[in-house]
Automatic annotation (TrEMBL):
<dbReference type="GO" id="GO:0036376">
    <property type="term" value="P:sodium ion export across plasma membrane"/>
</dbReference>
<dbReference type="GO" id="GO:0005886">
    <property type="term" value="C:plasma membrane"/>
</dbReference>
<dbReference type="GO" id="GO:0000166">
    <property type="term" value="F:nucleotide binding"/>
</dbReference>
<protein>
    <submittedName>
        <fullName>Na+/K+-ATPase alpha-subunit</fullName>
        <ecNumber>3.6.3.9</ecNumber>
    </submittedName>
</protein>
<dbReference type="GO" id="GO:0005391">
    <property type="term" value="F:P-type sodium:potassium-exchanging transporter activity"/>
</dbReference>
<dbReference type="GO" id="GO:1990573">
    <property type="term" value="P:potassium ion import across plasma membrane"/>
</dbReference>
<dbReference type="GO" id="GO:1902600">
    <property type="term" value="P:proton transmembrane transport"/>
</dbReference>
<dbReference type="InterPro" id="IPR050510">
    <property type="entry name" value="Cation_transp_ATPase_P-type"/>
</dbReference>
<dbReference type="GO" id="GO:0030007">
    <property type="term" value="P:intracellular potassium ion homeostasis"/>
</dbReference>
<dbReference type="Pfam" id="PF13246">
    <property type="entry name" value="Cation_ATPase"/>
</dbReference>
<dbReference type="InterPro" id="IPR023299">
    <property type="entry name" value="ATPase_P-typ_cyto_dom_N"/>
</dbReference>
<dbReference type="GO" id="GO:0006883">
    <property type="term" value="P:intracellular sodium ion homeostasis"/>
</dbReference>
<keyword id="KW-0378">Hydrolase</keyword>
<dbReference type="GO" id="GO:0016787">
    <property type="term" value="F:hydrolase activity"/>
</dbReference>
Amino acid sequence: VQIRGRPTENQSGTSFDRSSPTWAALSRIAGLCNRAVFLADQANIPILKRDVAGDASEAALLKCIELCCGSVSGMREKYPKIAEIPFNSTNKYQLSIHKNTTPGESKHLLVMKGAPERILDRCSTIVIQGKEQPLDDEMKDAFQNAYVELGGLGERVLGFCQFHLPDDQFPQGFAFDTDEVNFPTENLCFIGLMAMIDPPRAAVPDAVGKCRCAGIKV
């Protein structure tokens, strides 16, 4: 799925199956493992034009999921956050653990997003057509080539993964410790990539032309 940073300018839509189990998992991670929130009193403003508190990437994800899946705040109420490791430049990932009441799933859901290479390295399985299966080297190479290609186009690429924490090891009320980590951060399940780009605004060509006329290399 490709999210345009300023979708009101130069839109280029990408079609996908919103009923896909893989998309459902990807959108859930993008909504939950995300600190961005819409500012108050914007219910009557189109989603893509709403102001957001949060960094640009998380704001883009928030708007995308709100537009495609409905209320992200409602999603977060359904899956309350009970532990979090914020993004940092060392780990290059963000992780959160949520209560999960989805029938047939474990009581706790771990979700993670971050630099694609860091996410892939922490995964041993992948969801394909809604089914979890081993993540082999050929698949990893394919995803690595994909994010390198997207990165070469100037897009920011993020990887997403999850893990259903076993109920027998992590029962309801378990005390998750994000300092002395007492839960898995490896052998997770890879879900997919999302790429973001902020296309040049309409005034950019004129500005570039003026720079060149002034003898500035651009």
